[in-house]
Amino acid sequence: MKIIVTDEVAQEGLAILQRDPRVQMDIKLGLKKEELYSIIGDYDVIITRSGTTVDKPLLDHATNLKLVARAGVGVDNVDVDYASAKGVIVVNAPFGNTNSAAEHAMALLLSFCRNVTKANGSLKGGAWKRAPFTGYELKGRTAGVIGLGKVGGRVATRLKAFECEVLACDPYIAEKRAHDLGVKLVTLDEIIKNCDIITVHTPLTSETHNMIGQKELAAMKDGVIIINAARGGIINEEAMLEALDSGRVAGAAFDVWSQEPPDSEILKKLIGHEKMVVTPHLGANTFEAQVNVAVDVAKEILRYMDEQPIENAINIPKFDASLMGQMRPYLNLVNVLADFIIQLVDTNLNKITFTYTGGLAQYDCTPITVCGLASLLNRRVEQEVNMVNAQLVADNMGIVVEEVKSTHSEDFSNLITVTIEGPGEKRLISGTVFEGVPRIVKLRDYQMDFRPEEHMLLLAYGDRPGIIGKIGTILGKHEINIAAMNLGRREKKGEAMVILSLDSAVCADVVEEVRAATEATFVKPLYLVTAK
């Protein structure tokens, strides 16, 4: 196995590979593009950090390349889609800096509470002042951790060690994880209203962008302390500046910014604010973290060489050709089922069950299960989840995954059912393949039969005359065309469920209008990427 290293990578990681007699390693730093292009075709693996761009031209020259190993979390410098098309596996090291990030969050908190930065500047300036730097203890305070993943979980543990009462909010982890950490799982609103300290540890997504803004800051306790060592943009920085100026927030400590390096006037004022402790995105910047990511990618390369499962692959490796031939239609089906049902679940995921009935149950359904699990989790977590690392991600989230098989099926020759269970909630969806096309045939306990489409609207309501007409009128008024409709009910004038296939998306205002007009008990617009 020929490996080229093109960026500075910790020797501790490289040494793991150099000890293996199967490895021939060349360390070539600072190569120009043309120089790298001229030699990359000789190598099976490239190890990089952020200094090398693994793009289409490089991959086209890399005729023997089998694996790109990014010694770090981000893969912005790697064209993952094109690598996948070329059959090249891309791996990274998403957890190597977990401890580093958690410790930095605590360092920020303690620095603010004990006025470390101010007192440091004062003493170095020649003054001996103590009274201006009276600080706060953590003991006895209520701390709220938003996001209880790898980093958030470690921060929660450390806060408990400082004798804080710890509340946590994370709708995407199982209750068991919070119980194991000894923290109380609550809603975001409860954290906003009750905590003396609030620290965020979520990814930056459309859901978490500006998650804490003017409204949330106004609802917090007077004198709250806020920490952000996760991602810039989770906390609205303009609202944060106003809350500091007003005195509602006692102070804050940020390591991350919506713009890096910061350049706007708002950010400059926030960074310069006397109540702020700030650092330039140093969460992963420790010697240990750099060693960890190097070791992690080295181990991934060894797993690949030993034909073992790769834990942190960004793209999906190939299955055995004969197995793929049997499973391909059902891989597509389970993706659609997962994409559909996960949008109906608003609580923590405790258990996911994949049930296979009919002839399909005679085969190894593991590829389908892992594919479906990856599709579910990709809607819930920041890291890229695929068929290689899906089970590992589920385990880390405390989610139980089960596979049930039965060759007996009365209605369909092959049927896949996905069941998701959370606190006080259970969702079920069943589907089959008809003439190569996915069909959804059951939702909860309603028998249905429809083809999933990109844009859909699902409603549950009390069955009575005129409801379907009201829905059609409202959608028509907003020029949203109904392509197909499927209705399910158990009895006359009982609860009914309707699923509409639409030519375009439904905005939130229209959804609320439909809800009000139909008195729907449940209404949800769906966007199925897998049905495009």
Description:
This protein has about 525 residues and is an alpha/beta fold. It contains 18 helices and 22 strands. It has a 7-stranded parallel sheet with strand order 8-7-6-9-10-11-12, sandwiched between helices. It has a 6-stranded mixed sheet with strand order 14-13-15-16-17-18. The longest helix has 21 residues, at about 320-340. This is D-3-phosphoglycerate dehydrogenase. It comes from Geomonas subterranea. InterPro entries: ACT_dom, D-isomer_2_OHA_DH_cat_dom, D-isomer_DH_CS, D-isomer_DH_CS1, D-isomer_DH_NAD-bd, PGDH, PGDH_ASB_dom.
Low-confidence runs: none
Q: On the 0-100 scale, what is the average pLDDT?
A: 91
Q: Rounded to an integer, what's the Rg over CA atoms?
A: 26 Å
Number of helices: 18
Euclidean distance between termini CA atoms: 40 Å
Principal-axis shape equals globular
Q: Note the beta-strand portion.
A: 15-25%
Percent range of helical residues: 25-40%
| Strand arrangement across the biggest beta sheet | 8-7-6-9-10-11-12
Pfam families: 2-Hacid_dh, 2-Hacid_dh_C, ACT, PGDH_inter
Family: Belongs to the D-isomer specific 2-hydroxyacid dehydrogenase family.
Protein name: D-3-phosphoglycerate dehydrogenase
EC number: 1.1.1.95
